[in-house]
Amino acid sequence: MKLGVLFSGGKDSTYASYLAGKENELTCLISLFSENQESYMFHTPNIKLVEKQAQKMNLPILIEKTKGVKEIELKDLENAIKKAKKEFKIQGIVTGALHSEYQASRVKKICGKLKLKCINPLWHKDEISYLRELIENKFKIIIVGVFAYPLDESWLGREIDNSFITDVKELKEKYKIHPAGEGGEFETFVLNCPLFKKPLKITDKKISGGKNSWKMEIEVE
Question: Quick one: which of 30, 47, 61, 151 is 20 to 30 A from 7 by CA?
Fold first, then answer.
């Protein structure tokens, strides 16, 4: 089956691509650039770097812009998927939804309208098992944004490794933070994985924020 991937450059959409691509053909990536940093639907930190990731994956990428207004942004998503269906003849859409009913239900509704299959390889995976899978499958992932107490600037740039898992397990028990960041507690960026021809390397970074909201904008090659 030919699939388009709703792609943000973070761990969830990239790992979902990896899993879906084992038995299907990944035909294109679809990314939405949102003006709204608090978008309910779309990842925003370092989103413009998805083009560099697409090059490493040797896949075409279709990019659409949205103002990120709640619910209205769904029409922009529908238009992007519609374009991908026409241009790349896709038969289904891959999402990285893990537990978010809000995101999954809305994408599923759009896919139903456009007569496309909606594929959610990560749906309801155990969070800690999922993080371990990422490591086992050689995904190099860093934290590029943190948005919940007690996460702070020191977490930026951390790689998802065994020590990271140990730390987020403690945060889950003490502060109810979702270990995989599904509640928006943190955002990630994939520097390397089995889908990439070569890894991306960070050439520059800029940290901004304060209190419980910190971001790291990076440059890669």
Answer: 151
Amino acid identity for residue 49 in this structure: L
Q: Contact at 8 Å (CB) between 38 and 118?
A: no
Give the C-alpha separation, 50 to 5, whole Å. Answer: 12
Backbone Cα Rg of the chain:
16
Residue burial 126-140, b: 16+ Cβ < 10 Å; e: rest: ebeebbebbbeeebb
* Cβ atoms within 10 Å, residue 103: 19
Model confidence pLDDT, tens digit, residues 10-32: 999 999 999 999 999 999 999 99
C-beta separation of 144 from 192 below 8 A: no
> How many Å apart are CA 92 and CA 89, to the nearest integer?
9
Number of H helices, E strands in the chain: 6, 9
Q: Running DSSP on this structure, what letter comes out for residue 159?
A: B
Cis amide bond preceding 121, omega within 30: no
pLDDT mean across residues, the chain: 94
Q: Is 157 left (phi over 0), alpha (psi -120 to 50) or beta?
A: left
Alpha-carbon distance 5 to 20, whole Å?
9
Domains of the chain: 2-119 (3.40.50.620), 140-220 (3.90.1490.10)
What CA–CA distance (Å, rounded) separates 201 from 114?
Answer: 38
